[in-house]
């Protein structure tokens, strides 16, 4: 264009690059707010992927599902998987650390993993395998008392792979005994009139908090290093002694 004598042709390159940079900046700064305004943004995944479809896991998954939160169970035992499916729970039948699992399992909507089996090695493998997908702060495990006490020098300490669910004094066998003795997994609403402190005071040693759900449906798994505070408007899923549930 300069050779043809067009005036101002020498600044076209500068203008072109300014237009490109400008459109990229404008798109980058405005695309997410506009997408949120149009309701097109995928919400943060708050569902829970539970490894193990045993009786305890099924009861917990059912209660989580009742609260409108996505949940999925996995197990290598066909009877457990069938039982969970009959209850309407999403499941994966197979080994969660297999190539088949990598191809089949859809983690969309799932933001946390809870390894909840009586097999310490399987729990450890699951945490290690899914650490990259969920992040270290979002993978949890239940302790297996028999293997913790054995002191096997070849075993991997699970705390290096995830967080200890429900507290350092809670073991898988404890949950199993509590369920067998008639305790129930229930949900209680927390409010200004009935705070979480009131809740703990009321039930004292007969309650084991498991999962908290915020007023915005954000999920939190109770653990021995928790960094959240249960507030008004939240719901708490707990293992409770067989007594009337308190409604806020």
Outline the structure in words:
The protein has 248 residues and is an alpha/beta fold. It has eight helices and ten strands. It has helices at residues 12-37, 55-66, 78-86, 99-104, 120-134, 145-150, 172-180, 196-203; strands at residues 47-51, 71-75, 90-93, 110-115, 139-141, 163-164, 184-189, 207-213, 219-221, 235-240. The strands form two sheets. A six-stranded parallel β-sheet has the order 3-2-1-4-5-6, with helices on both faces. The longest helix is centred in the N-terminal third of the chain and has 26 residues, at 12-37. The radius of gyration is 25 Å and the shape is elongated. The N and C termini lie far apart (77 Å).
Overview in brief:
The protein is α/β, with parallel strands linked by helices. Helices cover 37% and strands 19% of the residues.
Query: What global shape is seen?
Result: elongated
Portion of residues in beta strands equals 15-25%
Mean of pLDDT: 85
Low-confidence regions: none
Q: Would you list the SSEs in sequence order as H and E?
A: HEHEHEHEHEHEHEHEEE
Helix percentage range? 25-40%
C-alpha termini separation: 77 Å
Structural class: alpha/beta
> What gyration radius follows from the Cα positions, in whole Å?
25 Å
Total helix count?
A: 8
- Give the strand order of the largest sheet, numbering strands 1, 2, ... along the chain: 3-2-1-4-5-6
Query: What's the β-strand tally?
Result: 10
Biggest sheet features: 6 strands, parallel
């Amino acid at each position: 264009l300069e050779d043809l004598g067009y005036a101002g042709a020498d600044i076209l390159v500068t203008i072109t690059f300014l237009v490109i940079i400008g459109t990229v900046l404008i798109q980058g700064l405005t695309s997410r707010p506009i997408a949120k305004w149009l309701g097109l943004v995928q919400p943060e995944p708050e569902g829970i992927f539970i490894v193990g479809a045993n009786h305890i896991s099924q009861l917990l998954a059912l209660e989580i599902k009742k609260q409108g939160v996505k949940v999925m169970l996995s197990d290598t035992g066909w009877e457990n998987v069938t039982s969970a499916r009959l209850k309407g729970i999403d499941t994966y039948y197979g080994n969660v650390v297999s190539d088949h699992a990598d191809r089949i399992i859809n983690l969309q909507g799932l933001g946390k993993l809870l390894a909840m089996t009586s097999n310490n090695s399987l729990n450890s493998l699951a945490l290690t395998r899914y650490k990259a997908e969920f992040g270290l702060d979002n993978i949890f495990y239940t302790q297996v008392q028999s293997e913790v006490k054995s002191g096997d020098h070849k075993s991997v300490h699970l705390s290096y792979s995830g967080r200890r669910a429900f507290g350092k004094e809670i073991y898988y066998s404890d949950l199993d005994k509590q369920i067998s003795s008639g305790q129930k997994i229930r949900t209680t609403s927390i409010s200004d009139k009935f705070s979480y402190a009131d809740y703990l005071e009321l039930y004292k040693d007969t309650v084991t908090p498991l999962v908290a759900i915020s007023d915005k449906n954000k999920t939190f798994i109770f653990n021995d290093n928790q960094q959240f505070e249960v507030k008004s408007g939240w719901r708490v899923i707990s293992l409770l002694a067989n007594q009337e549930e308190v409604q806020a």
